[in-house]
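Supplementary Text 2. Reproducibility record for the structural model of the 208-residue chain.

All settings were left at their defaults, and a single model was retained for analysis rather than an ensemble. We include the record here because the model underlies the residue-level annotations in Supplementary Table 4.
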Amino acid sequence: MNKPKSDPFPGFSVQPVVTCDQIKFQVIDAPYRQITEVPEYLFSDIRPDDLVLDVGANIGAFCLRAARFSPHVTAVEPVTADLLEENVRLNHADVRIIRGALGTGKPAEISWDGYRLLSPTYTLGKLIGMAGGCDFLKSDCEGAEWLIQPRDLEGIRRIEMELHIPPISAPPNPALLDYIWDKYTFSLDRSPVYSPFGVMGILHATLK
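Retained model, structure tokens:
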């Protein structure tokens, strides 16, 4: 007799979602946002041999699509990692998951739509090491991007990054902005797909 599969999300009702490009998701009736579409990011230039790092993966909207271009995708997520893991399995995607957040390397309280938890954090350099490298970085981490040390971007060919301003984040890090200005050609889309309150814009950057 087969043992019944345990409920991976006890206490929540689960709703299947299939997007227009045929990505399958499980979403739950939790109060925090579960993102299934990412039209604000540009990623059609991901190369088959690119090492892709998705920081702030949520439930997989970016990394599952990136995995259609490259089999070398690593997703970092502190809050919705269980859902992310289920959606990776559901889509038979080649995505490695790191349960944690971008930060200083010390545990930190992470907040997402009022949901809070204590999470391990890793510097970007550490995350890149754990992923085996990074050619294409996508980052949406609610202000933690300003903790990135410019040297950790060295060698990254492409960056797609949501940049935040107070009250979501601390003030922007001038050293990081100066590094991007010097090393990358870039544009800043100031029209995110949701309310721009607390958002500087979406950075699209290519190494010079």
